[in-house]
């Protein structure tokens, strides 16, 4: 597929590595039926450019380019207090000489504190222009429009990026990723049986669905929900995938191209569970690769859970998309070291 007609900035200057995880594969197999499990490979999108953060960098290559093409001088976006997306959007804004404003949604009451560590420190260090905090469940689109009006009243031009950067333009980042991976698989002589990816605001999963379709890739793409069960998540991903496909002009997305699993994110988005801790510890202690507690720890827990349920045929080659998110790991030290009692 030809993406060259879409404006793009480059924040990562080489394909991110695809690696085999031999020790993790062995450790996982020991807990699978008959002691045989899938062979696990990893796509290191935790090593993308900009501020070390993860998958939002790929979406922002297209979103920031579009903002610049439209003559905007301020990026406006939204997220939770430890949002990877907000932090990376700010880094992109700094790099492009743009200003940046956030609407922060306090999904957990009183979780936002200006003095807190993690993101708030980094927001200040990179020079965010303004932060508006709103209660959980607020209309984020309306809140961002209000900020855009304020910016306009100063004679400037804002560019609104939806939560997670998940719209048709942002989704192009993961179409580009699919093209990058497809070339890597070919060069490596690697015939995969499935790809596992996190499914949140849906730009990553939906963009990849469109990328698989447009590039005629037939292996299953398995989404692991980080905040919703399939009945709520799949329509969201489907809508995103179709929006990306429409932008690309590749026709109708079959509904069954969108597949996700739930059961690994509870009790709530961003709230830790025991499965996540097991996954974070297991990958850290077998391969020295870190996962984050909000997304990739739960997504890997999903891959492990499916493997243990016998979802993959023995020795199937399964690629795990490491979508990043590591800066938030620090805020959850006691949890991931097992010092906090957790439910499954
Ligand atoms: C945002 C995010 C995801 C989920 O991606 P969506 O495009 O929002 O579905 C997964 N992993 C990390 C680290 C993220 O920050």
What does this structure look like?
By secondary structure, the chain is of the alpha/beta class. The chain folds into two domains: 18-53 and 167-336, Rossmann fold, CATH 3.40.50.1100; 56-165, Rossmann fold, CATH 3.40.50.1100. The protein has eleven helices and ten strands. It has helices spanning 22-29, 56-69, 84-96, 119-125, 140-153, 168-188, 203-214, 230-248, 274-287, 296-308, 333-336, and strands at 18-20, 39-44, 74-79, 99-106, 130-135, 158-160, 194-199, 221-225, 259-261, 317-322. The strands form two sheets. The chain has a six-stranded mixed beta sheet with strand order 1-2-10-7-8-9, sandwiched between helices. Helix 1 (22-29) packs across helix 9 (274-287) and helix 2 (56-69) packs across helix 3. The radius of gyration is 19 Å and the shape is globular. It binds pyridoxal-5'-phosphate. Pyridoxal-5'-phosphate (PLP) binds at residues 54-55, 84-85, 164, 166, 198-205, 292, 295-296, 323-325.
């Amino acid at each position: 597929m030809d993406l060259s007609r879409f404006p793009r900035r480059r924040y990562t200057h080489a394909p991110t590595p695809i690696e085999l995880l031999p020790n993790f594969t062995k450790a996982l197999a020991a807990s699978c039926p008959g002691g045989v499990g899938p062979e696990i490979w990893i796509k290191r999108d935790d090593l993308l450019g900009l501020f070390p953060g993860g998958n939002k960098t790929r979406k922002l290559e297209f979103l920031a380019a579009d903002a610049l093409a439209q003559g905007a001088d301020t990026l406006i976006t939204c997220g939770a207090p430890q949002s990877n997306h907000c932090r990376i959007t700010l880094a992109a804004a700094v790099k492009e000489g743009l200003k940046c404003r956030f609407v922060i949604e306090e999904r957990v009451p009183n979780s936002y504190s200006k003095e807190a560590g993690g993101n708030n420190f980094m927001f200040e260090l990179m020079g965010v222009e303004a932060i508006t905090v709103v209660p959980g469940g607020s209309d984020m689109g309306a809140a961002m429009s209000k900020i855009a009006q304020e910016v306009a009243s100063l004679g400037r031009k804002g560019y609104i990026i939806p939560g997670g950067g998940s719209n048709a333009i942002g989704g192009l980042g993961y179409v580009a990723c699919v093209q990058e991976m497809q070339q890597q698989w070919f060069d490596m002589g690697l015939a995969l049986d499935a790809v596992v990816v996190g499914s949140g605001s849906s730009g990553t999963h939906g963009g990849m669905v469109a990328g698989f379709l447009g590039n005629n890739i037939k292996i299953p793409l398995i989404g692991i929900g980080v905040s919703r069960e399939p009945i709520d998540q799949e329509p969201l991903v489907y809508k995103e995938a179709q929006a990306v496909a429409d932008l690309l002009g590749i026709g109708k997305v079959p509904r069954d191209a969108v597949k996700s699993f739930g059961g690994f994110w509870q009790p709530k988005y961003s709230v830790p569970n025991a499965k996540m801790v097991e996954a974070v510890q297991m990958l850290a202690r077998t391969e020295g690769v870190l996962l984050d507690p909000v997304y990739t720890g739960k997504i890997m827990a999903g891959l492990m859970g499916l493997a243990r349920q016998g979802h993959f045929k023995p020795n199937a080659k399964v690629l795990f998309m490491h979508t990043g998110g590591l800066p938030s790991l620090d805020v959850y030290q006691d949890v991931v070291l097992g010092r906090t009692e957790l439910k499954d």
